[in-house]
Design goal:
It is built from 20 helices and two strands. With 415 residues, it is mainly α. Keywords: ANK repeat, Cell projection, Cilium, Metal-binding, Repeat, Zinc, Zinc-finger.
């Protein structure tokens, strides 16, 4: 961490405390070299150093920061993983202002670093000297992707109980489905197309989808019946995921029934569902998506909770201009300032996609699959702006030419 970066962090952590210098710390040559490699993002050299360093990697600098905390602040996910593999303490509390590695990861804005730390056992509720959690620090510096990752994290132990028999009740999840399902429920993006693609990505289509919906329903109930702290947000999220999976299953069963009847052997339920979600009406409204989300909200069983009342009030308001999905997304992930300035995939709503339509360059996608799913509707409008703009200039030129020719003919006739 540079001296300027360190100053920025300690200023926010100290909240006006003038004592910023910690006690003098004496580091060995190898320990100082590890800090230097992390500061320069030299991961190959760091890997070599760690392979030769046989002691505990939780030594600290003059600010009480461990190598893991430095790597987290740099947002260096490879260095973070190397240190975790060496047994680094993910919840080290030696920092002078009680920042943990997750606090620093949140400040870096790297959601992958945050997830690695959380999976390694980082405490998302740990507070620093001014009482701020990692998610609150991320929100303070507008690292909203990190906020979403931390707030949507689910400890693995909360899912493991569904992979074992409980008395006469059989396990709802096969052990092989534990990790894929765990990854699935932690997704931040709740767009139905992204849910569909993640179901496919994590191999959940081969599982018993009815059992997966049952697990999500039970997890919803558990969040609402916690004695210590009810989590309405996660309860609604589990309900939302389960409802969308139910719609996906309906489309799969429909396609399978047509295949069995030999009426349609080529159709794919993934494309069928995606096209229904993305098909716009004449005024551009995504009618099926709007109806799906509204019905999902209506079927949420805990009608007395705050999150349900807020969504219903917004959806029923005559002044509301937001899409139902935006209202549900805000309920789960919080309001987003300057949402219009964030680029999203035109298919699945994933933020900051790195691909564009090769023809018009105006719509963005995560990858080729997202582009393929959206092409059925985008092809009607693709390249229209450029073609209409290109046609306008020749039209003007043609009018000028006609006028000149007419003028010349009149002169000839007059002469």
């Amino acid at each position: 961490m540079s001296s300027e970066e360190s100053q920025t962090t300690t200023e926010s952590a100290s909240a006006g405390n003038p004592e910023c210098a910690g006690p003098k710390v004496v580091l060995s040559e190898d320990q100082q070299a590890i800090f230097n490699r992390i500061a320069k993002n030299e991961n190959s050299e760091l890997r070599l150093l760690l392979s030769q360093y046989k002691s505990n990697v939780d030594f600290v600098d003059e600010n009480g920061m461990t190598p893991l905390q430095h790597a987290s602040y740099k947002g260096n996910k490879e260095a973070v993983q190397l240190l975790l593999d060496q047994g680094a303490d993910v919840n080290s509390g030696k920092h002078e202002y009680n920042y943990t590695a997750l606090h620093f990861g949140a400040l870096s804005g790297n959601a992958e670093v945050c997830l690695k730390l959380l999976l390694a056992g980082a405490d998302p509720k740990a507070t620093n000297s001014v009482g701020r959690t990692p998610a609150q620090m991320a929100a303070f510096v507008a690292n909203l992707e990190a906020v979403g990752t931390i707030n949507n994290f689910v400890p693995l132990k909360d899912v493991e109980c569904y992979t074992v028999d409980q008395g006469q009740k059989k396990a709802l999840l096969a052990p092989a489905m534990l990790e894929p399902f765990h990854r699935f429920i932690m997704q931040v993006n709740i767009h139905p197309v992204r849910i569909l693609l993640n179901v496919q990505k994590y191999g959940l289509l081969v599982a018993d989808m009815k059992s997966i919906r049952t697990v999500l329903s039970e997890m919803m109930d558990r969040e609402m019946k916690r004695r210590a702290e009810v989590n309405e947000v996660m309860a609604f999220k589990y309900h939302f995921l389960g409802y969308v999976i139910g719609e996906i299953v309906k489309h799969r069963d429909y396609i399978n029934s047509r295949r069995d009847a030999q009426q349609d052997a080529k159709s794919d339920f993934v494309e069928l569902f995606a096209k229904r979600v993305l098909k716009p009406s004449k005024d551009g409204t995504l009618d099926y998506l709007e109806a799906l989300v509204r019905e999902c909200v209506r079927e949420f069983p805990y009608r007395e909770c705050t999150i349900f009342r807020q969504m219903v009030t917004q959806l029923a308001s005559k002044e509301n201009v937001a899409a139902a999905l935006d209202i549900a997304r805000a309920a789960i992930n919080g309001q987003r300032c300057f949402q219009d300035t964030i680029s999203v995939c035109s298919s699945c709503g994933e933020e900051k996609p790195d691909k564009k339509c090769s023809k018009c360059k105006e719509v963005q996608y995560c990858d080729r699959q997202c582009q393929r799913l959206h092409w059925f509707t985008h092809k009607k409008f693709c390249a229209r702006p450029s073609s209409s703009g290109g046609d306008a200039q020749p039209a003007v030129a043609k009018e000028i030419d006609s006028a000149e020719i007419s003028d010349q003919l009149q002169k000839l006739v007059a002469g």
